[in-house]
């Protein structure tokens, strides 16, 4: 297909056509994605016939009328990038206001990139999202928190007022300066660590046990691209605490959810899932219908 014509069809697909017709246009724009969508829908129909699941029925209805998306839920429609106000200040810094606090972004990002990115955060952290880190049952009161895979730092920022101490682990250099600006008002209780959390300590890696061996930690949130199991393997002593609570991403690999649950339950933790499913056709041992629980929350019995 002519490259110009493909770009023309893509703009129509994204901005003009009703979703029903946009789905059919996908047949020509991305045949592999179109075929995958058909396979997912067929699998869900057969699966639902055998095991009735309101959650999966809801997702099936969504995919029947929409392209495949990571968060297959209608609540996303209320969020629009154009509604996000981006502010600038001296030094080339750009930020948005989140609950009255400034959240900064990399200096070289354009306004449209910030709007698009933060709109994704609003969707991801909506109370109805399977990727929402916030659960009052698990994140209440004060104490010290670790935001592992902090990125822009939104989880730590939303909890900073009630936190005694905040440790932000982020390895992507593009976020370090922005994080320092965001948390400057709380610099006396915020530590930014440019290391990977893993099951060994070496060069740019460190275990939870080694880092917190002489520090208090009460809450751990981790979104580290499938390395959450390594995090737990390197936290054997820390997990013995009675007051530790965790929110861990569980969707990056097909079997991560069960592996994380097995480790935590064997250590005396009560575990629950976030609501709904994430569509994620990537990672190890990927199988249809590519629906995975987003997070698991854990606390001692």
Question: Strands, helices and their partners?
Answer:
Layout: H1 3-15, H2 19-29, H3 31-50, H4 54-65, E1 87-89, E2 93-98, E3 101-105, H5 111-124, E4 144-148, H6 154-159, E5 165-169, H7 173-182, E6 190-193, E7 196-197, E8 205-206, H8 208-211, E9 219-222, H9 228-233, E10 245-249, H10 256-266, E11 269-273, E12 278-279, E13 291-292, E14 295-300
Parallel strand pairs: 4-5, 4-9, 5-6, 7-8, 9-10
Antiparallel strand pairs: 1-2, 2-3, 10-14, 11-14, 12-13
Notes on the structure:
There is one protein chain. Helix 1 (3-15) packs antiparallel against helix 2 (19-29). The protein has a seven-stranded mixed β-sheet with strand order 6-5-4-9-10-14-11, sandwiched between helices. A three-stranded antiparallel β-sheet has the order 1-2-3. A two-stranded parallel ribbon has the order 7-8. It has 301 residues and is α/β, with parallel strands linked by helices. It has helices at residues 3-15, 19-29, 31-50, 54-65, 111-124, 154-159, 173-182, 208-211, 228-233, 256-266; strands at 87-89, 93-98, 101-105, 144-148, 165-169, 190-193, 196-197, 205-206, 219-222, 245-249, 269-273, 278-279, 291-292, 295-300. Strand 2 (93-98) and strand 3 form a beta hairpin. 36% of the residues lie in helices and 19% in strands. It folds into two domains: 3-68, no CATH class; 133-300, Vaccinia Virus protein VP39 (Rossmann fold).
């Amino acid at each position: 297909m002519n490259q110009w014509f493909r770009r023309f069809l893509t703009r129509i697909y994204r901005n003009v056509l009703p979703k029903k017709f946009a789905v059919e246009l996908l047949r020509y724009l991305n045949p592999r994605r179109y075929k995958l969508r058909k396979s997912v829908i067929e699998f869900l129909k057969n699966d639902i016939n055998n095991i009735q699941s309101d959650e999966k029925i809801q997702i099936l209805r969504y995919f029947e009328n929409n392209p495949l998306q990571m968060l297959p839920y209608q609540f996303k429609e209320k969020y629009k990038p154009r509604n996000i106000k981006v502010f600038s200040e001296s030094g080339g810094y750009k930020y948005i206001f989140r609950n009255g606090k400034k959240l900064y972004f990399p200096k070289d990002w354009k306004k449209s990139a910030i709007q698009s990115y933060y709109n994704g955060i609003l969707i991801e952290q909506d109370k109805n999202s399977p990727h929402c880190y916030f659960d009052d049952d698990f994140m209440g009161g004060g104490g010290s928190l670790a935001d592992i895979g902090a990125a822009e730092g939104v989880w730590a920022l939303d909890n900073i007022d009630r936190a005694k101490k905040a440790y932000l682990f982020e390895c992507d250099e593009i976020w370090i300066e922005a994080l320092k600006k965001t948390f400057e008002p709380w610099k006396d209780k915020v530590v930014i660590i440019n290391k990977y959390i893993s099951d060994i300590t070496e060069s740019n890696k460190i275990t939870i046990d080694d880092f917190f061996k002489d520090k208090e930690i009460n809450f751990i949130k981790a979104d580290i691209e499938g390395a959450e199991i390594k995090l737990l393997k390197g936290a054997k002593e820390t997990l013995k605490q009675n007051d530790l609570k965790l929110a861990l991403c569980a969707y990056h690999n097909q079997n991560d959810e069960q592996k994380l649950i097995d480790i935590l339950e064997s250590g005396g933790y009560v575990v629950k899932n976030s609501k709904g499913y994430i569509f994620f056709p990537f990672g190890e041992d990927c199988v249809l219908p590519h629906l995975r629980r987003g997070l698991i929350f854990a606390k001692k019995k």
